[in-house]
Structure formats: C-alpha cells, structure tokens
Amino acid sequence: MAIEIKKSHVGMFAAYKKRTGKTTQEALHSKDPHIRKMANFAKNAKKWHH
Fold first, then answer.
1. Which pTM does this prediction carry?
2. Alpha-carbon span 18 to 4, nearest angstrom
3. Following DSSP, what letter does each residue of the chain receive, concatenated?
4. What residues have CB less than 8 Å from 12, skipping those under 6 apart?
5. How far is residue 40's CA from residue 13's CA, in Å, rounded to a whole number?
6. pLDDT tens-digit profile of 16-46?
7. Which is more confidently placed, 29 or 2?
C-alpha cells in the first residue's frame, strides 16, 4: 500500500519550514492544526526506509 500525496501538496511543509525558519519539532507545537498534522507526518515518514 502506497501513500499518495497530491501534487499540489508536495513540498508544502518544506516551504513552510523555509519561510518561517522553524524546525519540525517547533512545528509540532504550532497553534495551527494543519501545520501540526504536516509536522507529525514528516516525523513519522522519516522512519520509513523502503
């Protein structure tokens, strides 16, 4: 089973981090639930080695 990310959403979290200068850990504590969701996905995806 593969996870499909919309082409319009690819790189969205990386762009947020570059724009704000925040780390993934800082984004996990954001007030915005969408940012927290992207940060949590990034944290989990880092563990995937396939």
1. 0.84
2. 23
3. ------TTTTTHHHHHHHHH---HHHHTT-S-HHHHHHHHHHHHHTT---
4. 38
5. 11
6. 999 999 999 999 999 999 999 999 999 999 9
7. 29
